[in-house]
Amino acid sequence: MHRERVSENVFWFQSEIYAQVTAGVVAGPQWAVAIDTLALPDETLSIREFIEHELNVPVRYVINTHYHADHAWGNCFFPGATVIAHARCRDFLIERGIPYRWRANFASWQKEFDCFICSWS
Question: Are 13 and 25 in contact (CB under 8 A)?
Answer without folding.
Answer: yes
